[in-house]
Structure formats: structure tokens, C-alpha cells
Structures
1.
Amino acid sequence: MNADVVARVIPCLDVTDGRVVKGVNFVGLRDAGDPVELAARYDAQGADELVFLDITASSDKRNTMIDVVSRVAEEVFIPFTVGGGIRSVDHARAMLRAGADKVSVNTAAVENPQVIADIAAEFGTQCAVCAIDAKWDKDTSSWVVYLHGGRTRTDLNAVAWAERAVSLGAGEILLTSMDRDGTRDGFDVELTRAVTSAVNVPVIASGGVGTLDHLADGVLQGGATGVLAASIFHFGEHTISEAKEVMSRRGIRVRPAVS
Amino acid sequence: MTTTPKVAVLDYGIGNLRSAQKALQKVGADAILTREHGEIEAADAVVLPGVGAFGACMDALRQADLESAVHGAVNAGVPFLGICVGMQMLFDASEEDASAEGLGIIPGTVQWIPDTVQRPQMQWNQLHILHDDAMFAGLGRAPWMYFVHSFHGVPTHSADTVATVHYGQTLNVAFRRNNVFATQCHPEKSAHDGLALLANFVQWARV
């Protein structure tokens, strides 16, 4: 890896009805707090970026998310990405206007790849994050893309889709392993490595973090430059500072956390 | 001397201008987004933000009729801050778009960062401060700032560079020319170090 890379630790906040929630395998959602309060705490602890995913993502709730984004932007002075239900340039614009730095598109990008190109053309590739939910498929010995929060299987090869998304203008890939999400067994580093080897944009590894060493594995074994986790931070198990200490001890360059 | 200085953030219709506005408000400025020449002339300080492509930003700045307002503020001697592509536009030209003419306030050109590293640099990195500057007061010798860029400024007069970062090679990322301070990083997205830099700008605007 380029010695000048500084890995990013990225807490992820799943938001519904204006609250942060965390489920295990998409069931049993547990309230994890107020998004603004949590985001400000992570900023103060030294998080490098934040990701907010609107997990309701129904169009009638969009204004709730816009309100969350604009309240976060009042209090948080690190970059943040907003995803979940963004289907058009207009949706993207609303989130960016409210104060988001980047938007991530997932299902909509597969259904209409042009949306990535449109967002990149309108706001720059640095704004356009392609989120990919991938799961190992035994029959084809490849990772395939899932949509609608993991409920719908496609025949799309995840690595090929990542390459296509980048060629369309995605400036970053947010890569979640459906096999590992919620397991606490660590990132799928093979999946991560397959994607980071195929594309020349930053890749954020996601899904499966149970220990702080898993974060370091995502960088060292997976080649990710960003590592995303939710539960280990939300419920006070670990702080950002502890995460960075472990990563630093494993030889990864990080921005020191605030003491 | 005003305790809450008025800072005009030039609004030419691109980018996430609200971030810069909110960060300036957080550190004590009365920050407004504006393209009204009267408001800009009345401001204690002026910020030129920018995001996206050099040529598109120059076009948008000219379409918003703000080129003369930039020169007016720079010539009037008020504290002036260029951020990201707002910094790049202060140069004469950019390798990104040979047909686009820059503002020519910092002599020099904007050039690609090397292709031996992933472009853009989208991460935090540590400034290496070359020259003491009131904008760096209290920040230590190596503050951490957030970057998103594929280009960096190469001034004709090397003394105009006040800070660098290392990414593939040494990149010039902050510049000072009289009342103009310009930086490639995003202080409005750089947590406490970034807010401290903006607080120094607001403090300067109070003088």
C-alpha cells in the first residue's frame, strides 16, 4: 500500500424515524440514540468520517432524513455520507444542500446505472459513492449483488459491478458483505481484496466487525482505505480512540484520535 | 473592530457552501452566503469556496458575475480565504482544463498530483507548515486536515507556499499572498484543527 495512505475509521449510523437503530440480521432493531448526539460524540472522539443510512427510505419519510442531515451539519465538522433511498439527482441535491458531503446509491444504481453518472456529472465524482451489498454464491463461485437492503438477489457479479460503477463516475465504493453483516466474525477480506484490486478508487469495507483487530484486517488484508462499523461503537464497547490505537499498533497510519 | 465580523461566503451555485457557512458561524462569524456586490464590499472578510472541476467553477463564478467582486475584495485588502477549488481558481491556470482562465491572483499553475498514487487524495493528512502565519496560530507544527483533490498549486514564487503535505510526493497545499490565504484542504470538514484555522481567519477579520 502507498505509505502516504491514512486509513479512515467510519462509524455507520442506521437511521429510521429520526433515531439511530441497530439490528442483528435486519431484525430486532435496538435504539442506539439520537443521530446528532451520536455523530457529535464520534466527531469529538476523532472519527474520520460518518455514514448515515436511512433504513426506512420510504419517500414519505425523506423529509425526516433531510432534517436529521441538516441538524447533523450544524454540529459535526467532519465529512459525512448519506445513503438509503437516493434514486435521483434531485434526491442527491436535497441531501447535499442539507449539508451532506457525499451521497451513496445502492439499489437505484443497479436499476438505473445512469444515476451514478448523473450525480457525478452534477456534483463531482467525489460526491458519488456506490454502495454494494454482496454475498458469496456457491454455484457461480463469485460474489453477487443484493438489493433492497439484502432482500433481493441479482445475477450481477459484485466485482464487475464495482468496476462498472467506477467507470460511470463513482468516486468511492462502500462494500458490505451480506455473509458477514451482523456476525461479528470480521470483514470478508477476500471480497474486499477482490474489489480493491479491481478498482482504483477508495473502498470502504463494511459488515462483520466484532473486534478492533477486524478493522486492521480490512486495511492490511482487504486493501480498504476506510473501515466501517456500527455496533462496536454505538453501545460503548469500544471508542474510536481504541480502534485507532489497535490499527496504529498493527502498522497502519491513522489520524490520532483526540485524547 | 467588530466582535462578530461579517464574512461573505461567495455563492455561485456550486458545492456544499452551507458547510463553510456553518463552520464559520460555529467559530464566531456572522457568515452569509451571497452574490450581492454590496454585501461583499461591506463584509469584513471574504471566502471563496469551490468543489468539482476547475473550468466549471470558473464558468459558474463568471456567470454569477463574481469575478470582479473577488478582485475587488483582494484589492481592498480584506482578509480573503480560498478553499479547495476556490484556492485553485486563484492561480493563473490549471492542467485540469487548459481552456479555462484562472483569476491570476497567485502567480502560478495548478497541476496534477502524481499518478503513482490513488487520485483523488481523499483522506486526512498532516500539514507540514513551512512559514509561520497567523492562520496557523495555535495549530502546532503538523495539524491534521481533510483533503479531496487530484491537483495542487505550483506557485511561480515558491515563498507563496506556506504549507505542504506528502502524498506520493510533496504537494503544496496552503498559500499566502498579502491578504489572501488559500488552502487545498477543507477546514470546514477538518474537526478541531480545521475549526481552529477558521477561528484564526475570523480573528483576523476582527482586526
2.
Amino acid sequence: MADDASSSSGITGNTVENSINQDELIMKQQREIEKEISETIPLVGEIEELQTLEKEYNEDPIYLLKVKDLSSKYKSIRRTRPDGNCFFRAFSYAYLERLLTDKQEYDKFYEIAKNSKDILVALGFSQFTVEDFYETFMEVIQRVGEHAGSTPDLIETVRMELHDKFNKQGYSDYIVVYLRLITSGQLQTDQEFYQNFIEGPRTVTEFCRQEVEPMYKESDHIHIIALSNALKVCVRVKYMDRGEGSQVIAHDFPEGSTPLVHLLYRPGHYDILYA
Amino acid sequence: MRKPREPKSNRRRRNKMAEIVEKYNTKCPGVKRLMREAIELAEATEEYCARPLEDNLFEWHFTVQGPKGTEFEGGIYHGRILLPKEYPMHPPHIILLTPNGRFEINKKICLSISGHHPETWQPSWSIRTALLALIAFMPTPAEGTIGSLDYTPAERKILAKKSTNWSCSQCGEIKLLLSSTAAKPLTEEEQSVLNQIAFKGEDDQSSKPPPPTEEETPEPELQVLESTEPVTGFLDQLTEILVALLVGAIGIFIYRRWNAFYAEAETEL
């Protein structure tokens, strides 16, 4: 008897199912691309000379001019995996690496990081899941702090450990999740301000749930503004695209302070730059 | 100051946890997280309960109470939760085992934010979020989504009544699994999240292999285990055959022209 009911409903559901199958196929293809990327590109790569970029654009005069401009200010680049998490991964890697040689900045950041969990829990995020990410995040930060500003040998040891951790999905993704939560927390704390940046009818909370908190969602200006505000870290992003001119335009978040993290943006992707 | 005596079942469970700790690599984030969740969900509540299988932390069994004031009221529904090795980066899958008239049984369903894809799952959600969302989603219209059933309220009520006698081969009579303690109240965040979550079934062809039954360290390379897609695989093969045929045809064509040309040249000579 019950089975009859289900078969009759199957007919009306047919068109809906077709469009879902279409969706499924697209998602399948996307998953394959993602799989290929994850098999060939490390989460965070080794440091490379900026000239490798020149080779990449050998037959592209517009980009070649821009790479030339870039190489007047930067010597090297560190690539990250283009999986939608690249901004968060590049940012945290570059910043923690920087903290290794800057004890004063480290101490400032440690306080902010330590208090971040309570802010998130007060906003209503589930305590035990937030704690799970927070603990891993703090474990990595504390390790950096043990030798921040110490001898070059010790710094190098910790730097290599850091590189290793950033290439372990367990650590690396946990750091990304936690930074996404901090970003979401900042957006929600200062809703009125950030609402202006959101296009369309979405509320800040909806935006956070759809574009900030889920993994693999790409970052836009608003993510960068929120994260740099939450952690009080200035980020410089060099925007390299097909736009006119031979200059690569820089944006500082927030404007007017000294950037500690330098990132290269090419449409859809962030890498780390070194002077 | 006297501490209330801990129920025996709790102590037994704690020992179980110790065994699990020994068995799994606790450095693996999924394992660490699931152990936390097991502790968080150790006490059964009136609305839901869930716990990992004794021999596999990546498969849980759960029981939920049908939402009150709906045709599922009085029903008790049991099912499996399959956790991907990437959990909590990827969402859990839920399989209902008790006939309920809302979801097909023995079919993987997956939660997503309404109208969006499962990628919108958030790592800060948990098994509790999934169960609460499942309960909240039961009374919503099926609308032909994969894995959904459109039984009439009367049929669902009959199934709800029957469900109390249902028993799981691993967990026993399911009506004994829930307790009379009310669950932890919803946080504001949870409440607003629940309104947005939807469930939909997975296409059979795209269903992934079950989560690891043996201990596995989820290294990125392991993603090779992802299912091979029969549909695209078939299309690829078809294209290959077509290309081969085309190349063959062109080859024959050229060969014939060439022959014809030489034949002509020879006759001219």
C-alpha cells in the first residue's frame, strides 16, 4: 500500500530529478578537477624565484610587462593550492612565517588569537566544535612562539615544521576553518558596516553561512577586510590581471598601515610574495 | 559535595572510548573530532541519541523521535551515519533504516543548505546538528527530491505506530535507546542553521564507497579512493571509439586517393 504512494509520486518528481541529475553531473566533473588539483599541487609549495612567473607567461606580453613590474619589488613567490581556500592558507602561512622573526608582533597576535574563541562562542557557535579547531590553531601558534625572534637555527627548524604542518591536511585545513570562523565572527560582530559590501538581498549572517564558513569557498575583498580587521594585521594584495597599464596595482587592507603579509592575486587565486 | 554515582552504562562507554583511543591514530583530526562528539553525545536524550559502532568510529547508529505535532509524532526512527574520512571537512551521510514514509530507507541522504549543494556543509557543524536538522526536515514536503517519499499523513501515522516495535540487529529494540532527558536546548546559531538545512538523496551511480572500516590516516593521496564515475567513463570510451573510427576513415580515404593518384600517374607514363 505504501509502495503505491511512492511510485505515483515518482512521476511528478521526474522533471525535478532530471535537473538534479544534471547538477550531479556538473558536480562530478568538478570533483574530478578538484581531485586532479589535489594530486598535483601541494597545499603550500616551496619558495620559487619570481622568474618562474615569467616562464609561465612567455607568450603573453600583457602579463610579462606586469611580472617585470612585480619583480622590481619582489624577489620570490610561494604558490598555494588553488582549492578555494588559498587566501586563508596563504595569509596564515605568510603571517606565521613572519611572526617567527618578530617577537613583538607575535605577542600582540597571541593575545588576539587566545581571545578569539570566546568571541565565537558568545556569537552562538557550538562550543565543542569551535574548541576543536581552536586547539589545533593554538597548537601551531604556540610552537611558532616558542622560538619567535630566537637564533636563526631554531627559527629555521620551526619554519620547516610549519611548512610541514601546512602541507598536512589535518593541520592545514583546521587552520583554514578557524580563520573562516574568525572572519565570520568579525562580519557578524560588525554587521552594519559589512552589510554595505554585500550585493543582493542577503543578510550578513546568510552571507557568512554560504560564502565564508564553508570550506573551498573563494575569498573576496570582504573576507580580506574582515580578517585583517579581526586580527589587526595589514595585508598588501598585488592585483595582477589583464587590466590596462604595465603596473600591478596594490591594495592594502586596512589602508595606511605597514603591510606584514604580501599576496599576489591573479583572477581566482592567491599566492605569497617575498621582497 | 558527594558526587552522584555514575551509571554503569556510562562507565562501560568510557572503557569503549579508551579502546577506540588505542585503536585509532588520535593525531588524525577526524578521529579526534569524532571522539569528542562521542563524548558530547554519550547521554541519550528524549529527542535523539547516537553512538559509534563498537568496531568503527566512522560509522554511527542513531535514533530520533518523530517531531511532535506532525504525522511522525510517536514514531521512533533508527538509522546509520556514515562519516567520510575527510570529516568534518565533508558532511556525514545519513541512512534511515526504519520505514517512515518521508525518506527512502537504506538510501544515503546528505544534508545541504536549501537550494545549495552539499559543499555548503560547515566543518563547525556536528552530528548533533545533522540529527536536529533531520528531525526538523522530516515534516517538510518531499517535492520529488531524490531519496524522498511522498506518503500520505495517514500512511506515515501507521508507520510511526509500527516504528516503536522496530529493532536493529546491532542496537536491539530502538524504543529502549532514547531516554526521558530533554536534549540540550538549541543555541541561536543552531536554530537559524536548522531553518536552512535540506536533505537530499545521493544518486546511486555517484554513491561513494563506504567510509573506511579499517584504520586509515586520511592523507590527501587517499582521495584516489573516490568513486570512478561510470557515466563519464562510458562517455569517454564512446568518444575514444568515435575518434578511432574517424581516424581510420580518414586513413582509408587518403590511402585510396593516393592509390588513385599513382594509378593515374602510371597510366600517364
3.
Amino acid sequence: MVYVTSWDEFVGRSVQLYKADPQSTRYCMKYRHCDGKLVLKVTDNKECLKFKTDQAQDAKKMEKLNNIFFALMARGPDVDLSEVTGKEQMEAQPAKKGRGRKQ
Amino acid sequence: MGLLQPDPFLNELTSMFERNRDKGSVWVTVKRSSMKSKSQKNKMATAGEPVEYRCLIRATDGKKKISTTVGAKDHQRFQASYATLLKAHMAALKKRERKDKKKGVDGDRKDGAGSTKKPKRV
């Protein structure tokens, strides 16, 4: 098992893995505070994808992946993912505009 | 501990993160599950009943296990609180490094913030 180094590749491949076998694919994260390390793993018991990081900026990316997987797993593999990622952008934009005008 | 409701689960997860601050790891696994045994599933399949799936979330620190499930209706509320929980507890990850400059600027800002705010009110 090798760590995937590119985040986009990790997201793409893990979603693909899940869609191929929704029933047996799990998404696992391990966080170790004392070492400041975060490991994400997606596996279907045949193939295993892992991503390792110690960067805070990757935690933000992970949040998005969490949302993707919660949506995929709670609603089903056919859920429209653009809805999940699109909403976040919609929420972020008005907030920025508001701040700019006030000051 | 076993299966909890989402809110007690988040509380337990918070204390699990706190217990493992100095030493230890926390694992959180997310999986799609019907929460039924194989025989139950087979029975339902033969009876022609549709199998309902939920999202199962499990957490452990190697000593204690907790879990919860969220369905299609309540997963968005859960994932929002889960995200804030993670943000609060993943403080050990490295920020982008701009070491010495930042420390100096931060110190100045704190002193300056008080004096700049007051004139605005007046």
C-alpha cells in the first residue's frame, strides 16, 4: 500500500472506489494530536487508498471530502455531488461581499 | 459504549479527542450500512422488501468504541457539527510557515487592535 500524494487524485479515486462498491467501501480517518498527523483511508477490502498529511490546509480539504462521503453514504451513491460542492461556494460568496461593503 | 444518537455521539467524540491530546490516536470510520445482519437482509430480499441504508459513523481510540447513524434527512446537520468539532480539535496540524515575520506582526496587531477599535465607536 502506497500513499497517494496528490489530493485531487485521492478524492477522484476514492469516490470512484465507493461508486464501484458502495456496500463494502469505508472511509476512515486517523488523527494523532501529539504528532500532528492526519491519515485518510478509503478501502473496499481489495483496494486501499491512503492520504497522509500534517498541514492544516489539508484539513479544510478533508472537510469537503467528509461532506461528499456523508452525502454519498446517507443518500446513496447516485446523489448529485455538484449540489454538495456547489452549495459551499454559494454560501462563501455572499459573506465576502457583505464584509467588503460594510467597511 | 455502542450505538448512540448523533448528538451524544458528538459529545463523546469531543471528549475522546480531548483524552487523546497528549498521547494516542483517534479513528473515525464512515460507511454505508443497512444496520442489519446478513440473514435479516436475505429475508428481506426474499420477501421483496427494499433494504434501507443509512450512514454509519464509528469512532475509537483503541480503548472505547462509539458509533452513530445518520439518514438522508439529517446528515447535513450532523456533518456541519462534525466539521466544527474537527476544526476545534485538529489544532496540531501545521499552518503554512512564515515563522518570524508572522510572530512580529501578530504581536503588533494585538496591541494595535484595541486602539483602532475605540476611535470607531466615538
